[in-house]
Amino acid sequence: MTKEINLACIRSDLENFEVMKVSYELALRNECESIKTLYQTKRCALFHTITPCEDTVFHIAAYLGSTELLYVLFEMVPMSRTWEVLTMKNMHGNTLLHEAATNDKVDAAKFLIEKAHGERVTMLMEQNQLGETPLYRAAAFGTKEIVEYLANEVEKEEGALQTNFTRSSDNLSILHIAIMNEQFETARWLLDKDPDLAMKENYEKTCLHVLATMSTAFKSSSGKMSGFKEIMYGMIPGDLVHRDKTDQYVPSQSCEDMKDHQPKTSLSMHCCCFFIHFWIRFWMFLEEWDYIKEIRKTKRKHELAGKLADSLVKNDSSSWRKRHEHNTNICLPREKETVGGKESEASSQTEGIATTMVPQLETPLIIAASTGILEIVKKIHKEYPQALEHVNENGQNILHVAILHRQYDVFEHVKNESEKDRGVVKRRLVLGIDNDGDTILHKAARSEYYSGGTKSTAALKLQEELKWFQKVEKMVPAHYTIHRNKKNKTAKELFKDQHKDQLKDAQEPVSPAPPWQS
Question: Where is this region: Disordered (predicted)?
Answer without folding.
Answer: 487-518
